[in-house]
Amino acid sequence: MAKTTGSKAAKSTSKRPTRTAAKPRQLKPPKHQYFKLKNRHKHPAKLPSAWQLLQAAADSLWQNRRLFLGITLVYGLLNLILVQGLANSSDVNSLKQNLDSVFHGHFGSLGSSVSVFASLVGSAGNGSSPTAGAYQLFLAVITSLAVIWALRQIFAKAIPSVRDAYYQGMYPLIPFILVLLVICLQLIPFLLGAEIYSSVISNGIAISTPEKTGFALLFLILTLVSLYMAVSSLFALYVVTLPDMTLGRALRSGRELVRYRRWTVLRKIICLPIALVVVAAIIMVPIIVWITALASWVFFLLTMFSLVATHAYMYNLYRELLNE
């Protein structure tokens, strides 16, 4: 029995496979996949809606109405002195009288007033000369820096003044202008598309409906390209006003703020001019109907205040992007 058991043990030992030296484990190299979309980064919080941003901007302006009204008045006064904002404005009274002869019926006055308002909106920002346009652009830059500085102080729980906004807010003037130049370069596709579309329509190159539609789609694509590039640089305008900030760092920070959500942020930006036009129409149309003589002055003040309101909205959106 002992021999049998020993022989079985020897057989089982002989059948056991011999162990070889363990080889180091290697990871299988991943296969390179072409044209694979990157996974979207999920942000921890959702951006507020455009309506919520409008409410936040309105609250900021209302709670500090004396400050922003003072900045608006200084901006308007400088425009009257240097740009002569109302000197070449259209005669609202004569324009309304001419349109009253076109529109008839119960809603004739309303229709003519809306047309006058559309004419005022179309002529807004048009300087009487290249020199006046340059002055207007420079004043818009100066006022933008003052408003951004005031908003930054308000969110820091400080109490700024109109004088301090115009004095202390001017230090990042050169970097701010450089970011504006970058935005102008990014708008070249839009300008090119507008020039092509205007040329083919005015010169009769595109005659049929498919041709006009094709050029319109080309113009739309080039416009979207410009907006896609410029949306990050818009926030670089606010980043570059920080102390010791350079142009390159500001542009990179602006790209990081809108990374993976450019179109979402762009939709909220597009809502701003629509809201401004609607609010201006609600204010201006009744004035054009009943107090036509004051329409030019009221529209001028609204145009001046629209720059302040724009920065209040954009700065609140900028703060929301930072907080995520």
List the helices and strands and how they pair.
Elements: H1 2-15, H2 50-63, H3 65-83, H4 92-100, H5 108-123, H6 130-155, H7 162-168, H8 173-186, H9 188-202, H10 209-239, H11 247-257, H12 262-290, H13 295-323
Helix pairs in contact: 2-13, 3-6, 3-13, 4-5, 5-12, 6-7, 6-13, 8-10, 9-10, 10-11, 10-12, 12-13
Structural descriptors:
324 residues; 13 helices
Task: Describe what this molecule looks like in 3D.
Residues 1-5, 8-14 and 32-39 have low confidence and may be disordered. It is built from 13 helices and no strands. The longest helix is centred in the last third of the chain and has 31 residues, at 209-239. Helices cover 72% and strands 0% of the residues. The chain is globular. The chain is an all-alpha fold.
Task: Note the run of SSEs as H and E.
Answer: HHHHHHHHHHHHH
Structure annotation, total helices:
13
Radius of gyration: 31 Å
Mean pLDDT: 85
Alpha-carbon distance between the two ends: 80 Å
Strand content: under 5%
Overall shape: globular
Q: Which stretches are low in confidence, meaning pLDDT under 50 for 5 or more residues running?
A: 1-5, 8-14, 32-39
Number of strands: 0
User: What is the structural class?
Assistant: mainly alpha
Largest sheet: none
Helix content: over 70%
